[in-house]
Design a protein that fits this description.
single chain, mainly beta, 0% helix
Length: 141
């Protein structure tokens, strides 16, 4: 592992390993929260707001749905070689009630609808630039 850690997607999450957070934004007109961030106009159909402020989102939630992928996705996704199946969960954030997709850390052990999960950081791949880090969901024991 490299000493340099870079976010795989800049600005979508904090790099605080002890307390990582997704970074969304909130419409200053109606207060609706978005992830990923809204940029041009509020996505709330009953609002015509165009101004937003950044907000850090809940780092815990409950599994709303999940699936396990048994086939390597196409480029530009970087898969380990050999490919290993992985799970993806749709998680309803505790405070915002937004549903956010993310890969599951450690496979499907303990994964079920309603399971409590927390946000963690994990290396997706390493290259000359360093460790490219993503967020994942981890089942709370």
């Amino acid at each position: 592992m490299s000493d340099v850690k870079v976010p795989a997607v800049e600005g979508w999450f904090t790099m605080d390993e002890a307390n990582p957070r997704l970074v969304g934004n909130k419409c200053t007109s109606c207060g609706t929260v978005f992830f990923p961030k809204a940029s041009i106009a509020c996505r709330n159909p009953s609002c015509d707001g165009t101004s937003f402020e950044d907000v850090e989102l809940s780092n815990r939630g409950r599994v709303w749905s999940y699936t396990t992928n048994h086939y390597a996705p196409p480029a530009p996704y970087v898969s380990p070689d050999p490919f290993e199946p992985y799970s993806v969960a749709a998680v309803e954030l505790a405070d915002e009630k937004l549903v956010v997709l993310g890969q599951v850390e450690g496979g499907a052990d303990g994964l079920k609808v309603g399971a409590e999960v927390e946000l963690v950081l994990s290396t997706l791949f390493t290259d000359d630039a360093g460790d490219h880090v993503v967020w994942k969901w981890k089942v709370v024991a």
